[in-house]
Amino acid sequence: MIARATDLVDLTDLDAAAAAIAPVAVRTPLLPADALTERLGHPTFIKPEMLQRGGAFKFRGAYNFLSRMEPADRARGVVAPSSGNHAQAVALAARLFGVPATVVMPTTVTPAKRSGAERLGARVVLAGTTTADRLAKAEEIVADEGMTLVPPYDHQLIIAGQGTVGLEIAADLPDVHAVLVPVGGGGFSAGVATAIKLRAPNARVIAVEPTGAAKLSRARTAGKPVRLEHSGGLADGLLAVEIGHLTFAHHQQYVDEVVTVDDSALRPAMRLLMDRMKLVVEPSGAITVAALLEGAYRPKGPTVAVLSGGNIEWGGLRELLGD
Q1: In what order do the strands lie in the sheet with 257-261?
Q2: From the candidate CATH numbers 3.40.50.1100, 3.40.720.10, 3.30.565.10, 3.30.70.120, the one assigned to the domain spanning 58-149
């Protein structure tokens, strides 16, 4: 394990994560988004992490974490608190290593995300509706069964794994001007921002969060993580009520701007991605495109919108996008 558990991730950590996941992860392409370029007047690209194994970027961090565990600890099994995508990622990583996995999901978990974790061989435990509910139950399982908790975002190995997305963007588009990345608990945005700033320092990093869970905006105002009284909205993967402490330190160092997006903008973004680019994206994954469509961020040069995931079932799509 990385010893400097509270230090910021650096290029050594990012490159080590890239090497660890290279044999098993998908190196997702950078796709020209002509429909967005036409509207925005600047070259715009999509980084489609819904094409990643497990249907979201989360596999990168989960596999990196498990790969660095002591074999004896890993063999006892892992447990992951998650709203959905981290659960599937840990379940898949555990299956690849041949170890047991338990995932703690909210009682409101979508059918697609629960069935995805079960299909990958995980035991599913439901606990409450908040991040705190899931974490408390996961810690109880750790204490009772001797498993290792795989944090969803606030850990160096997780941040470094997710940051490999930023390494790939910088390699594929060296003159990138801006990268938009979604914010949940902050591991993804922290990792991507770090990688972009260390490999393409002239680029701007724009963190995008839902107005119903603006925990990073609140933290930036306060100068420290602040726990929201509640969160809600369509972007179920981004509804953490507090940004992680380690992830916040990365945001303060590497994120240039934070913007918020209303739920009303998510459906048009999902529909455009499906109609014009043939990409199926969950609401959380579409939030960066929504930010561009509604003008929350206006590009000034080559821009990348990172799509974090696509774990939504047919029924959910019909409910969200059907006339």
Answers
A1: 31-32, 44-48, 303-307, 178-182, 204-210, 257-261
A2: 3.40.50.1100
Q: What are the tens digits of pLDDT across the range 136-156?
A: 999 999 999 999 999 999 999
> Tell me: the pLDDT tens digits for 187-237?
999 999 999 999 999 999 999 999 999 999 999 999 999 999 888 888 888
Residues of the chain with CATH 3.40.50.1100: 11-53+155-321, 58-149
> What fold characterizes domain 11-53+155-321?
Rossmann fold (3.40.50)
What DSSP character marks residue 212? G
Q: Which residues are catalytic?
A: 58, 308
Q: Using a cut of 0.85, tell me whether the model's pTM lies above it.
A: yes
C-alpha 306/C-alpha 193 separation (Å) is 12
